[in-house]
Design goal:
Blueprint (H helix, E strand, L loop, with lengths): L1 E6 L19 E7 L2 E6 L15 E5 L4 E2 H9 L5 H7 L10 E2 L4 E5 L4 H14 L5
Antiparallel strand pairs: 1-2, 2-3, 4-7, 5-6
C-alpha cells in the first residue's frame, strides 16, 4: 500500500466528497491487486476531535435499538453523520458498536452548527496533520 499524500478531493479522477463524509479527512492510499490499482483509506487512524461548547449540542432519546446510520438519519436526515454521533457518544455504546440501545439519550450537534464543527475537525486533523 502506497501513501499518495493526497486527500480524495485533491484527486481529479475521483468524485469530491461532502463536508459530512468521514472519509474526507483521511489521506488516500494506492493499492495494486491483479494488475489493477485501487484507492483505499486507512480509517483506523484516529482524528482530532475539538472541544464542543454546550450551546452547540442538543439531545435525542432513542425509542429502540438503532444502527448509527438510522440514528443519523433520524437526527440529520442523512446517514453520513453516523461517525460524529459515535464520537460524541462513545461512552454510551454497550454491546455491538455502531448500534445504540433504546431509551438512551445521545448528544448531537445542532444542525445549524454542523458545518462549522465539521470544518474545525477537518482543520485540526487534516491541516494540522494530527492523525494518530
Amino acid at each position: 500500500m502506497i501513501d499518495t499524500g493526497q486527500y480524495q478531493n485533491e484527486i481529479l479522477s475521483l468524485s469530491a466528497l461532502d463536508l459530512t463524509d468521514y472519509e474526507r479527512i483521511f489521506k488516500i492510499f494506492e493499492e495494486s491487486l491483479d494488475n489493477k490499482d485501487f484507492y483505499v483509506y486507512n480509517l483506523l487512524k484516529k482524528i482530532e476531535f475539538p472541544e464542543i461548547d454546550g450551546q452547540y449540542i442538543e439531545y435525542y432519546t432513542t425509542n429502540s435499538k438503532l444502527p448509527l446510520s438510522i440514528l443519523s438519519y433520524n437526527i440529520y436526515e442523512d446517514i453520513k453523520s453516523w461517525w460524529i454521533l459515535y464520537l460524541l457518544n462513545k461512552d454510551k455504546f454497550t454491546g455491538a458498536p455502531f448500534y445504540i440501545d433504546g431509551g438512551v439519550q445521545v448528544k448531537y450537534i445542532i444542525n445549524a452548527f454542523r458545518t462549522a464543527i465539521y470544518t474545525d475537525i477537518t482543520n485540526s486533523t487534516v491541516y494540522d496533520n494530527r492523525h494518530y
